[in-house]
Amino acid sequence: MVAPVRPAAAVRARSVADVQATLRWATAHGVPITPRGGGTGKAGGCVPCEGGVVLSLAGLDRLRSIRPEHGFAEVDAGLITGTFRDAADEARLYYPPDPGALDACTLGGNVATNAGGPAALKYGVTRDQVLGVEAVLADGTRIDLGRRQPKGVAGYDLARLLVGSEGTLAVVTGIRLALRARPASIVAALMPFATVQDAAQAVTLGRRSGLEPRALEFFDATALRRAAREPGFPFDPSWGALLLVEFDGEPGVPEASLARFAEGLGDRGPLEVRVAGDEARRRGLWQLRRRTSHLVKVGAVGWITEDVAVPLGSVPDLVERLPGIGEQHGVIALAYGHAGDGNLHVNLLWEDPSGAQFAERAADAVIAAALDLGGTISAEHGIGLAKRRFLPQEVGDRAIGLMRGIKQAFDPLGILNPQKVFRLQEPPC
Ligand code: MLT
Ligand code: ZN
């Protein structure tokens, strides 16, 4: 877990000019700046670990324009993601990324971590929607990067380089986001399976069938049992695991796709298919899914949440290794998440304070398993501070050297969110 840190000061920017003035001053005085959106990140990316100034973008929250004729919108970085999705919906358009903290996270924060969510399965993560960004460099210069149409290869793609850079290269103040046509119809269904392996196999087989679910969410039995202490959370003790499967398309298509998905699994198919009969029920299911991260932790005194992803065909292998990791290290290991993307939120919990001493080793084992299977240490939460010690294992020293070079080119004084993603120098945090 990342410990809280108090900065020397906080700036609440209300305009791009405020951001520019803050960065000009910080460069002149060599003061570290930690940009902050909604503060909902999972990896400690907005923790001001070197003190200095926290620069909040939350007050920069205008929807600048929606341009249906161009297929994009221009937004301030501090606009709440859920608010933006609702505005797009009113314009009969669709913005797919739907991270867990939808109603509290900001689009700028989503850009910082390249956030995903369930619908990333069909429509891609934040980076796939970003056409361009407006950003302020460490010396206070405002730049506009990227494009206004789907195509463009004018030099290096600096706009998308900023996506996922966690505020270490520049402070993003505005974003140009592609919008799509709103799906005509969406249908969700719960599919419980007798065993966790059947559910994990269904994820890989279901994708291979040529069908394109918009969401394929997985819950193992431990996650279900813990979350089901919340009234209304779907659970039956006979379930080994649960999938929440969703399709969209022209009316009638999602229902047919759900049926084909389940039938294609043959003998190892779901115990039943519980279709959410109307929009209110569908939304209810997603509310419970969004609360899973919180619900599974109730009763635990501490936890580490991992955000690994593996190639799709290795999801069953990863799922099979988790109980052993939990047992070996004396922690509760559970998983839920965006299995259709190979992405599982593995939670390591302890209900007795003594569990803390073993948890780091359990986390090491989860990371080792993901990398052994050819996966990644973070699919959508970012590296921040929490995953930094694992980064060299995934990308290697040569790649970290290249990243340091890019950091140096953007931020020669090293004042922008220092020590995040990789250490600038040893130590201090
Ligand atoms: C989610 O999918 O619920 C979010 O990424 C948060 C999490 O589970 O840790
Ligand atoms: Zn997630």
Task: Give a structural overview.
With 429 residues, the chain is of the alpha+beta class. It has 2 domains: 10-182, 2-Layer Sandwich (Uridine Diphospho-n-acetylenolpyruvylglucosamine Reductase, domain 3); 185-372, Vanillyl-alcohol Oxidase, Chain A, domain 3, CATH 3.40.462. Helices cover 33% and strands 22% of the residues. The protein is built from 12 helices and 17 strands. The chain has helices at residues 16-29, 81-90, 107-113, 120-123, 158-162, 196-208, 221-227, 253-263, 279-295, 315-329, 356-372, 391-410; strands at 9-12, 33-36, 53-56, 63-67, 72-76, 93-94, 130-136, 142-146, 171-178, 180-181, 185-193, 215-220, 241-249, 274-275, 302-309, 332-337, 343-350. The strands form 4 sheets. The protein has a 7-stranded antiparallel sheet, with helices on both faces. Strands 4-5-9-7-8 form a 5-stranded antiparallel sheet. Strands 1-3-2 form a 3-stranded parallel sheet, with helices on one face. Helix 6 (196-208) runs antiparallel to helix 10 and helix 10 (315-329) runs antiparallel to helix 11. It is globular and about 65 Å long. The chain starts with 8 loop residues before the first strand and ends in a 19-residue tail after the last helix. 48% of the residues are buried. The structure holds D-malate and zinc ion. D-malate binds at residues 42, 100, 292-293, 305, 337, 345.
